[in-house]
Amino acid sequence: DTGVSQDPRHKITKRGQNVTFRCDPISEHNRLYWYRQTLGQGPEFLTYFQNEAQLEKSRLLSDRFSAERPKGSFSTLEIQRTEQGDSAMYLCASSLPVDEQFFGPGTRLTVL
Amino acid sequence: AQSVTQPDIHITVSEGASLELRCNYSYGATPYLFWYVQSPGQGLQLLLKYFSGDTLVQGIKGFEAEFKRSQSSFNLRKPSVHWSDAAEYFCAVVPYINDYKLSFGAGTTVTVRA
Q1: Pairing between strand A44-50 and A53-57?
Q2: Contacts for A24 with CB less than 8 Å, ≥ 6 apart
Q3: What is the 3-state secondary structure (H, E, C) of chain A?
């Protein structure tokens, strides 16, 4: 296992389009997290899964955002009707309970 | 408000010189503390972490950090910087034992000059 992977690495889309990102965590990790990082800022928490259950969503996650983790393995983050303010780096991380989080390389989203 | 503060936005240091990056947090209890490094185009890599015990923790790449409860600080140090240490450094906390969300500071960009 080589770590957390994310796909795509870069996504350019037009305002109003839908986009979906994928995260593959480290296989034995039951916890999975999504963060968003804008330029010049640290990452901000978006949502958290324990196995397949989504246990918390940040207020940053508007109704246009939805995340899933079917079968407790990979996760997807979908943004509907993208806006220019959604442009950011979307980071996925995974961990074991009460342990460090391992981050993927991120998906950089640009909304034109 | 609860927060993580990294007072220095940008630090420039000569290769071979020492480096210290500051981090302060404002949480009631002692949180779990982390330092991550992010190089251009790369994900976040954990340098070191503090959960409990010895307040001076050693990490990878020659970094160390000291937890000072009285100052609510967790400063990162390296005795001799290499050009490859140029990157952005983030301090992060998990505020409570049963929590899991990382709260990050805004980061410090380190430039290394020859």
Answers
A1: antiparallel
A2: A4, A5, A6, A7, A73, A74
A3: CCCCEEECCEEEECCCCCEEEEEECCCCCCEEEEEEECCCCCCEEEEEEECCEEEEECCCCCCCEEEECHHHCCEEEEECCCCHHHCEEEEEEEECCCCCCEECCCEEEEEC
Q: Has residue B30 got a pLDDT over 80? A: no
- Using a CB-CB cut-off of 8 Å, the residues of chain B touching A56 are 101
B106 contact residues in A (CB cutoff 8 A) = 40-42
Cβ distance B34 to A100 less than 8 Å, yes or no, reads: yes
Contact B63, B77 (CB under 8 A): yes
C-beta atoms of B100 and A35 within 8 A: no
| Per-residue pLDDT, B29 | 76
pLDDT band at B41 (very low <50, low <70, confident <90, very high): confident
What is the rounded distance in angstroms from the CA atom of residue A65 to the CA atom of residue B84? 37
Q: Which of B4, B8, B42, B44 should one mutate to test binding to chain A, selecting the residue with the greatest count of A CBs within 10 A?
A: B44
Judge whether B18 and B82 are in contact, CB under 8 Å. no
Compare CB distances from B43 to A45, A48, A104 and report the shortest one's residue.
A104
